[in-house]
Design brief:
With 60 residues, this protein is an alpha+beta fold. The chain has two helices and two strands; from the N terminus they run H-H-E-E. The protein has a two-stranded antiparallel sheet with strand order 1-2. The longest helix has 10 residues. It is elongated.
């Protein structure tokens, strides 16, 4: 299903925009301690087409 997620996002105009954990680390780890606070599945996924997660990061 992950492959369908990226195909689906590439076809959508505008947000939501996916940011993977490695990109968060690359962008912020040099200046902040990066902490994953929460990751939960989105009920019904994105428009009931693909699975998705809400993720909360804390930069300290």
């Amino acid at each position: 299903m992950r492959r369908n997620f990226w195909r689906y996002l590439s076809e959508m105009a505008g947000s939501p925009f996916s940011v993977v954990a490695s990109e968060i680390q690359a962008l912020y780890a040099a200046h902040y301690k990066v902490n994953l606070l929460c990751e939960e599945p989105v009920e019904g996924g994105l428009k009931r087409q693909v699975s998705a997660n809400n993720v909360i990061w804390y930069l300290n």
